[in-house]
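Retro notes (design track)

What went well: tokenization of the new backbones is finally stable.
What didn't: we kept losing track of which sequence belonged to which structure.
Fix going forward: every design gets posted as structure first, then sequence, in one message. First example under the new rule, 273 residues:
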């Protein structure tokens, strides 16, 4: 059974992300439960870019197949007014989805370029999502990613509330031992204090309600936790603090925190052109 009660499980189904290779937002389904249809090639990649605030072209190439198809997709989306591109920082150009593109994707996000202060973090989270969606068991299980932007837009969660970088939802009945679980995913690039990191871990693991629920339902003793696990994917700089924070949780909560290295390509490389 998925974390939380029946109402929460319905919310998870209604607000989920989309398995790799598919596109759409269930909160904006058309008549007959059909997903919005984009009359463009690589539509799933456009929705992916919208969900992640933006992507660099080398990461877009992972979605479209190669650098040539990524550049072609970006050019076509710009021609349609669905996307813009620019060099915002080190590495390859960034692509983000415009207001018409967001409307075509069926999502209600603010049409803004990715924040300069968050470029490295967005790239890292994107790399984590790409790595997860490339895993055979993830695809075979029909797992899906629900990103921070989708959570915030759907539920109107305030900026002061901590949100995970993403959630991975494993459907009930999936052919994995953790079927029905919801995992919180955090990409850690820089050192926080051990106390702050421990507090965030504890908040994630203690949560019982969906984001946007009434405060009294956010962490109810005796209810199943929303997040069966927290997956921390770390840079070398952040890893020691995350490991110490996990240890500080104690024997009851620490086994639910998994720590991994960031996947290759997650960190911005100034040498990319």
């Amino acid at each position: 059974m998925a974390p939380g009660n029946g109402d929460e499980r319905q919310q998870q189904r209604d607000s989920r992300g989309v398995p790799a290779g598919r596109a759409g937002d269930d909160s904006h389904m058309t008549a007959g439960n059909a997903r919005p249809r984009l009359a463009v090639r690589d539509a799933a990649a456009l929705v992916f870019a919208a969900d992640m605030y933006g992507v660099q072209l080398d990461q877009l190439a992972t979605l479209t197949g190669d650098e040539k198809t990524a550049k072609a997709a970006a050019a076509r989306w710009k021609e349609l007014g669905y996307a813009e591109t620019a060099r915002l920082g080190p590495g390859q150009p960034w692509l983000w989805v415009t207001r018409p593109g967001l409307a075509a994707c069926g999502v209600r996000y603010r049409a803004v370029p990715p924040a300069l202060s968050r470029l490295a973090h967005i790239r890292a989270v994107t790399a984590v999502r790409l790595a997860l969606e490339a895993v055979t068991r993830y695809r075979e299980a029909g797992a899906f990613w629900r990103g921070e932007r989708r959570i915030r837009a759907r539920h109107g969660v305030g900026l002061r509330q901590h949100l995970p970088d993403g959630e991975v939802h494993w459907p009930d009945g999936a052919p994995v031992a953790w079927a029905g679980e919801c995992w919180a995913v955090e990409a850690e690039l820089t050192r926080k204090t051990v106390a702050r990191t421990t507090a965030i871990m504890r908040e994630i693991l203690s949560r019982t309600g969906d984001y946007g629920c009434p405060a009294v339902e956010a962490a109810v003793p005796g209810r199943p936790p929303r997040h069966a696990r927290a997956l921390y994917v770390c840079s070398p700089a952040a890893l020691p603090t995350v490991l110490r924070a996990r240890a500080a949780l104690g024997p009851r909560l620490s086994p639910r925190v998994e720590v991994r290295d960031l996947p290759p390509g997650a960190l911005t490389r100034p040498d990319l052109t």
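Added context from the reviewer: The first strand starts at residue 55 and ends at 56.
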